[in-house]
Structure formats: structure tokens, C-alpha cells
Amino acid sequence: MQSSDNLPTLSDAFEYDTYRLQGINGWGPIASLGLNNVCRLRQLAQATAMRLHTEGATRSELRAQNRAVSYLTNIERETSFERPVLPRLRNELFHEDDQVVIYVGEISKTSPSWISGTVVSVTKGFNANWKKAQPNSGYYWHIVVEPDTGSRSPLSRFNFSNTEPRVLLHREFIKLKELLHQHDPFIPIFSNNAAREWTPLWCIENDIELDVSRMDYHAWLLGVDRVN
Questions:
Q1: In sequence order, what DSSP letters do the residues of 127-163 get, joined into one string?
Q2: Mean pLDDT taken over the chain
Q3: Parallel, antiparallel or unpaired: strands 167-169 and 158-161
Q4: Which of 69, 101, 193, 210 is the most exposed place for a label (fewest CB within 10 A)?
Q5: Number of Cα atoms under 13 Å in the Cβ half of residue 165
Q6: Where is the domain boundary, 60, 78, 96?
């Protein structure tokens, strides 16, 4: 694997998308993130390279960005194992009929912390409050999940966006449980990346107040053995 010594900083390599890398402290941990996450990072770095070229960046800036893309491409080629997709890196992750688990421990004291459900709808949505300077900002994948029968869910439907960390694909839920029991260093990266400062759509739509400052994803994962 090539050295990361001559690479740009993560903030330079990913620019507008740097916020998606929360929890990734430098280039070193990237090789441990699994194929799907590395692939997504390579795509984002390539998008930055195209932006720099269009905006007339200097040759030095373009060479530095090309080194970043090359570094990620090489890691991608050498990586064969998978890890759950980091919430901020998700892109069209959910599809109709997918089996998922949802964390509801914040809004219900009588339900299990995690409940199971099925994706029943995936459509393109728009939220003016999420619009920023970047192209296509404000648009998002609007996903609807219906809880499984007998899940003791506090809500009949859950609407959310693609990056909502409280919802996991069932197969990724199982993998996170396995990694948690192994004390794998991926868990704190995932937990940090999952941290949010905004309220889930299902809380906004149902007038449920939530203190998001108390979000502790690692503590939530400690309850993954208790799902209904």
C-alpha cells in the first residue's frame, strides 16, 4: 500500500463532503473501513477532483488530489472484506422490502430498544431547510418503514432519510453486533460517524420532543442483543 505521507489533508481532499468523514481521524484508519466505505470515499474524492478541475485549481492542488484518489483506489483494490456503511457515507442504501432494525429507545420506555421492520417505500424528497450551496442539496431519499407484526412499536410507520443512523439494514445490524462483541475499532468510528444534531423525521411528524444532545450510539449498540 502506498504511503499517506504526501497526501492532502482530509478536509482538502473532500472539501464540502468532509462532514461525512466524522469519526475518521486521518488517512490511516481508512484501510480498516471495508470495501463499501472505501469505494464511497473514492467516489467522493473523485468528485472533488472534478470540481477542482472545473474551478481552475492550480497544478499543485490537482496533483495532490490525484494522489488522494490514487491512494483510495489502491486501498479499494486490496480490500475484500465488508463493513456496515457509515451513516454519513450512505448513498441509496435502502430498497423496498429490505429488512431493517430501528432504535426507538429514545421515544418509548415500554418497547424494546431496537425493533424490526420492513421498507415499504423509497422516493425522492426535498426539504428546503436542508438546502445549502452544494448542487442537489435539499434533496434526499425519503424512506418509509412499517414495523413487523408483534414488534411492540410505538409508531405504525417510520419516515426517515437515507442517513438516519437510528435505522440499520438487518444484515448490517448483525455485523455490528459481531464487531461489538469482538471490541473491533470500527465500532467507535461508526458510533462517532452516527452522531447527529437534528431530530428524526418520525419525531418531527409526530410532535415527539427529543433531546438529541444525549445521543450515545455506542450505548445504544450495547442493547443490540435485545431486539423485537
A1: -GGG--SSTTTTEEEEEEEEEPTTS--SSS-EEEETT
A2: 90
A3: unpaired
A4: 210
A5: 24
A6: 78
Q: Which amino acid is at 7?
A: L
Same domain membership, residue 124 and residue 62:
no
All residues at 6 or more sequence positions from 142 whose CB lies less than 8 Å from its CB, including other chains: 121, 122, 123, 124, 125, 159, 161
Kindly state whether residues 94 and 190 are assigned to the same domain. Answer: yes
Q: Position of cell 474524492?
A: 45
| Burial state string for 29-50 with b = 16 or more CB within 10 A and e = fewer than 16 | ebbbbbbbbbbbbbebbbebbe
Which tens digits make up the pLDDT trace of 82-119?
Answer: 999 999 999 989 999 999 999 999 998 877 889 999 99
C-alpha 48/C-alpha 46 separation (Å) is 5
Place of cell 418509548: 108
Per the domain annotation, does 32 fall within a domain?
Answer: yes
| 130 and 202 belong to one structural domain | yes
Tell me: do 94 and 185 sit in the same domain: yes
Residue 127 lies in domain: 87-221
Select from 37, 34, 64, 39 the least CA-distant residue to 52.
64
